[in-house]
Amino acid sequence: MKDDVIHFVQETQLTVDYKIFKVLNDNEGVTYTFQFFFKDVFVYKLFLSEHHKNFSALLGKYTPPQVVCFNTLLQQI
């Protein structure tokens, strides 16, 4: 799954970076989170409008609880 997700997002050429984290306080097993970084909010919105439908379909191949998707826009301060 990791390779599919990273490949899909990188292929859009809209991200500037990504990070993968392991959740340390998960009592249900091993859980990972992906964070993708975009140049600005406009590029993020472009990703949503142009690629989110196919991205969701890709994630849909992995049924919950294996995969949960959150679209959260954060600003570094």
Describe the overall structure.
This protein is an alpha+beta fold. It has one domain. 39% of the residues lie in helices and 22% in strands. The protein has 2 helices and 2 strands. A hairpin with a 7-residue loop joins strand 1 and strand 2 (31-38). The chain is globular and about 35 Å long.
For the structure shown, list the relevant keywords.
single chain, 77 residues, alpha+beta, globular
- What's the shape? globular
State the separation between the terminal residues, measured CA to CA. 31 Å
Please estimate the helix content.
Answer: 25-40%
Mean pLDDT: 86
Name the beta content range: 15-25%
Q: Going across the major beta sheet, what is the strand order?
A: 1-2
Radius of gyration: 13 Å
Number of strands: 2
Give a quick precis of the structure.
The protein has helices at 2-11, 41-60; strands at residues 15-23, 31-38. The chain has 77 residues and is of the alpha+beta class.
Give the topology, please.
Elements: H1 2-11, E1 15-23, E2 31-38, H2 41-60
Antiparallel strand pairs: 1-2
